[in-house]
Amino acid sequence: MKKKKEKTPRQAMPEQAAEVRRRNFDEVPLGFPEELAMLEASRCLSCKKPACVEGCPVSVDIPAFINKVKEGDFTGAILKIWEKNSFPAVCGRVCPQENQCEGNCIVGKKDKPVAIGSLERFVADWARNQNDIPMPPIEKKTGKKVAVVGSGPGGLTVAGDLIRKGHEVTVFEAFHKPGGVLVYGIPEFRLPKAIVAHECNFMEKMGVKFETNVVVGQTITVDELLNDEGYDAVYIGVGAGLPRFLNIPGENLMGVYSANEYLTRSNLMKAYRFPEYDTPLVTGEHVCVFGGGNVAMDALRTSMRMGSDDVKCIYRRSRDELPARGEEIHHAEQEGIEFFFLHSPLRFIGDENGWVKAVELQEMQLGEPDDSGRRRPEPIPGSVKTVDCDLAIIAVGAGANPLVTSTTDGLDTNKWGYIVANEETGKTKKGQVWAGGDIVTGAATVILAAGAGRGAADSIHEYLTWGW
Amino acid sequence: MYQILSKTELAQGTVVANEIHAPKIAAKAKPGQFIILRVNETGERIPLTMANTNEERGTITIIYQVVGKTTALLASMSAMDHLADVVGPLGRPTPIEKKGTIICVGGGTGVAVLHPITKGFKEAGNHVIAIIGARNKDLLIMEKEMKAASNELYVCTDDGSYGHHGFVTDVLKEQLEKHGAAVKEAVCIGPVPMMKFCSKVTKDFGIPTMVSLNAIMVDGTGMCGCCRVQVGDETKFACVDGPEFDAHKVDFDGLSARLTAYQKQEKEAMDAYQKKCSCSTEA
Ligand SMILES: Cc1cc2nc3c(=O)[nH]c(=O)nc-3n(C[C@H](O)[C@H](O)[C@H](O)COP(=O)(O)OP(=O)(O)OC[C@H]3O[C@@H](n4cnc5c(N)ncnc54)[C@H](O)[C@@H]3O)c2cc1C
Ligand SMILES: Cc1cc2nc3c(=O)[nH]c(=O)nc-3n(C[C@H](O)[C@H](O)[C@H](O)COP(=O)(O)OP(=O)(O)OC[C@H]3O[C@@H](n4cnc5c(N)ncnc54)[C@H](O)[C@@H]3O)c2cc1C
Ligand code: SF4
Ligand code: SF4
Ligand code: FES
User: pLDDT of A267-307, one tens digit each?
Assistant: First the structure.
């Protein structure tokens, strides 16, 4: 009898050492070499009823693509993934896999789950460097025109899907570069901008037109697109572009930023390469970032890379409630970010020139569970402390930007200002108008926005083909 | 994409006007609105008001003072060059209606911002009294245009080299004393200290007053919160809620402070730019 084969442990992706990477903006994980990818793929049991697929919001056929990786057929693997997911290079890097595909993986019951995200990333990165991958076929021109408002992962998915169906697609983007949060929010060290640019170039090659520097609601309205410009359908995917502040005293002092501003300056405007790039950004000696999600982790790790040594994450609940991806928290800790759990800011204190110099924090404790099911943080009477802070970044969430909704006739919004749209089809109350992504759900994830885009693209195609 | 069609120096090479091809914006723009531009790939996004628009030609005109690296770079561009990006129209248009007598006060390059608003008020049938000022005669811009856009024009220079010797606030006070309650509204646009003092004067007379705030901006769409200003007990975003606000409620000192946030970096950028320029001309 053959000796029982020893179990292969989960393969770790090589990454830059924490000591080095905390001072540069290069990507942290370096990617799997082919052998490691195939070894990791061999850990998948090719389940008949794959639980992992149920965990993926767009149902990527995970066992099928992993099988192809096992066989070394990477072309086969990428074609499998593309059936469901247009941006595997992005999702492989930023999906909260531990709550989605990997969180469901059966291997994870006893051992560590199969590294589905890393494998997806590997396949996509491999494919990006080939030039003989067949282009998806593009159907005969239909003569129908679709306008996509916003070029985040949702809008790009709609554009990619509909161009293949033969429709004419124009994407309108307020910024000077397409990509949405993928270019202005998520930092280079987590998602290299060359990857996003590659995806957008690929769309252009397929025939998608990009009109940057167009603020819909100002430069042109949704109604004008439909009535004057001859578009047959409009998809609104403008994201949750409204920063939330803390509404505490001192918030307008210099040195206090919304995460949106701080990250836009550093990512989109490349302030980390000042003075080669003209946009400035301040470097704090004592940085405090408020919040505990992905946005907070990105702000923390960016300020560390900008040259700060004292960087604190101030979060009002405990470690267990941190909403950020596990990998980001882990990376942040390795890089020397200090976590202040159970602290909530009361006010910022300024110096004589109007710069923030300190923040007053209230210590909290966890009480009974609240509506979200998490234990509600409550102040501990009398325990207030002051910590040094000359750069404060507020990352406590985003709201609905009213620029498009307030200038479009007949769109329904809910009490928070998000657009009311059908969950599956993205249809809104207004004829010929669809919506999806963060402007419908509130700040969520890349793959949910892409999934919503796919559903809407199907519905738009159906409408353009058959009418109502 | 965004071609510069003409370049005019309005004052000693420190105030420049450019007509730029941007048909979509030209078709939509209203007085009081602005654009954000980026000169080149490595450039910063800066806001500038449209001093004029020409829908037929598909152009907008910007008038700006050279104060730092980006405006210096912009001023170094020639007619026929292209700008990397121009986005707009941004901000809310000035609410213009027939009210009676309106006083429009402009200082420095603020006069360029004030011009389309003045013209708008006159065209709406108001009696428009315009007061413009500059540090000296050479820095005074758009006198002719302002004369045409208003019913009465008063000019001041700080050093007395032209017109009334003194500040626009002096003339503003005189006019308010003369016309009293007939003045329905004042619009004051210029450097922050000037707007602050004009606002003090009109407050004493109880005249509703609008100012246009030049907060530092990034996106111009309400996404980043960089441009926040304190107005009464509310925090407003100048790019989408403004740029015009009720002068009697604005925290001018807070705005002044926030405008200094990047002084150190701005100087570094300008010094490096000037050094590079002088090297390349020597070479
Ligand atoms: C810093 C940060 C980190 C994140 N990290 C993760 C992560 O690790 N994993 C994950 O899954 N998700 C993450 N997210 C969330 C994720 O990025 C978003 O859920 C997703 O990008 C939403 O996609 P979207 O298509 O709805 O819109 P967005 O990506 O928000 O794009 C909307 C686009 O529309 C444009 N726009 C807005 N208004 C107008 C207008 N009036 N006219 C024209 N264009 C307009 C915007 O400029 C933008 O380009 C993160 C978000 C942030 C901010
Ligand atoms: C709505 C609005 C309309 C404006 N219209 C005009 C105009 O018609 N003509 C004109 O001459 N100026 C106008 N300005 C001011 C103009 O934007 C600044 O002079 C310009 O950004 C300076 O850039 P710089 O690189 O040359 O100088 P810098 O050296 O970078 O800065 C000089 C000063 O300009 C201000 N500034 C810097 N960056 C920005 C920014 N991104 N946004 C806003 N202000 C900034 C700061 O106060 C700074 O101290 C306007 C500003 C706003 C907000
Ligand atoms: S798209 Fe995201 S959730 Fe789905 S398999 Fe890929 S990494 Fe997992
Ligand atoms: S659940 Fe895990 S083992 Fe099963 S198919 Fe999915 S990845 Fe493979
Ligand atoms: S400039 Fe970003 S919100 Fe006004």
Answer: 999 999 999 999 999 999 999 999 999 999 999 999 999 99
CATH number for B4-90 (one of 1.10.260.40, 3.40.50.2300, 3.40.190.10, 2.40.30.10): it is 2.40.30.10
CA distance A413 to A458: 23
pLDDT digits (tens, 9 = 90+) for A385-442: 999 999 999 999 999 999 999 999 999 999 999 999 999 999 999 999 999 999 999 9
For residues A417 and A450, give the distance between their C-alpha atoms in angstroms, rounded to a whole number.
Answer: 21
Q: Would the CB atoms of A241 and B222 count as touching at under 8 Å?
A: yes
**Between the CA of residue A315 and those of A22, A363, A393, what are the distances in Å?**
21, 10, 12
Q: Is B120 in the pocket of ligand 5 (CB under 6 A)?
A: no
- Does the annotation place B156 within a ligand binding site? no
DSSP string, B111-162: HHHHHHHHHHHHHTT-EEEEEEEESSGGG---HHHHHHHSSEEEEEETTSSS
pTM strictly above 0.90:
yes
Residues of B in contact with A403 (CB under 8 A): 221-222, 240
Taking the C-alpha atoms of residue A181 and residue A297, their distance in angstroms, rounded to an integer, is: 15
CATH number at residue A355: 3.50.50.60
CATH topology for the B94-208 domain? Rossmann fold (3.40.50)
Structure tokens at A128: 């990006």
- Give the whole-angstrom CA distance, residue A102 versus residue A271: 35
A249 touches chain B (CB under 8 A): no
Instruction: Decide if B240 and A260 are in contact by the 8 Å CB cutoff.
Output: no
How is residue B19 written in tokens?
């007509």
Q: Which amino acid is at A67?
A: N
Q: Which stretches within A207-348 are classed as H helix?
A: 222-227, 259-266, 294-305, 326-334
- Note down the domain range covering A308: 245-394
As for how many domains chain A has, the answer is 3
Q: Do A403 and B86 touch (CB under 8 A)?
A: no
Rounded Cα distance between A156 and A200, Å, is: 8
